[in-house]
Design brief:
202 residues, mainly beta, 8-stranded antiparallel barrel, two-stranded antiparallel sheet, disordered N terminus, disordered C terminus
Length: 202
């Protein structure tokens, strides 16, 4: 989940708590899903939890947040996002973003809202049919460990089983991230497709 700038306040002490302070994992050593297969990754994913690099007002958290991945004619990926916005009476929102492929399968680039702010989108682990863990290091330390990161846990369903949660927790720990800082995404009433791809509807 990405939120509007006005809904986010940055605190340096919070950022430092998100990444384990004694981590020695170099970002360039992080492995993504082996033999990543894009065609198997396409389709709908539910956001289960996510790690922000900033403080997020609980009253501003989107709900029923899903992403639909579809391949474009140029080979890149269109993401159509749906969710409920509590700042708009919990009405359904819908907008589009783009993922660009790179020479390394599983290491992609994310253009949120197609505004040109390009960030990493690394699929660290997925089984394609149940879960996916995505990682983005925003800022490096001098020793190439990560100072500030974001991460997302997705599922093909609105929830994850206990055994899959255990697996996801292991992946998060391997990335030197503090899972207690992850924000849960609630799923109660999914949104139908809006006629305008960038709209908020009731």
């Amino acid at each position: 989940m990405f939120l509007k700038p006005l809904a986010i306040i940055t605190f340096s002490y919070l950022i430092h708590s998100l990444v384990v302070s004694n981590c020695t994992l170099r970002v360039d050593s992080i492995q993504v899903e082996a033999n990543f297969t894009l065609e198997r990754y396409l389709g709908q994913w539910y956001e289960i939890e996510w790690l922000s690099d900033r403080y997020v007002d609980p009253d501003a958290l989107y709900e029923d947040y899903t992403q639909l991945y579809r391949r474009q004619q140029d080979g890149n990926i269109t993401i159509t996002t749906h969710g409920r916005d509590p700042l708009h009476s919990h009405g359904c929102l819908q907008f589009s973003s783009t993922i660009y492929l790179t020479v390394t399968p599983g290491k992609m680039l994310f253009n949120y809202l197609n505004h040109g702010n390009i960030e990493n989108y690394w699929v660290v682990e997925t089984d394609y049919t149940n879960y996916s863990v995505v990682y983005n290091c925003l800022q490096l330390n001098p020793d190439d460990t990560c100072k500030s990161a974001m991460a997302w846990v997705y599922s093909r369903h609105p929830n994850l089983s206990d055994d899959l949660r255990a697996r996801v927790s292991h992946v998060i720990e391997s990335l030197c991230l503090n899972e207690t800082s992850f924000i849960k995404t609630t799923h109660n009433h999914g949104c139908s497709v809006a006629p305008n791809p960038d709209s908020v509807v009731g």
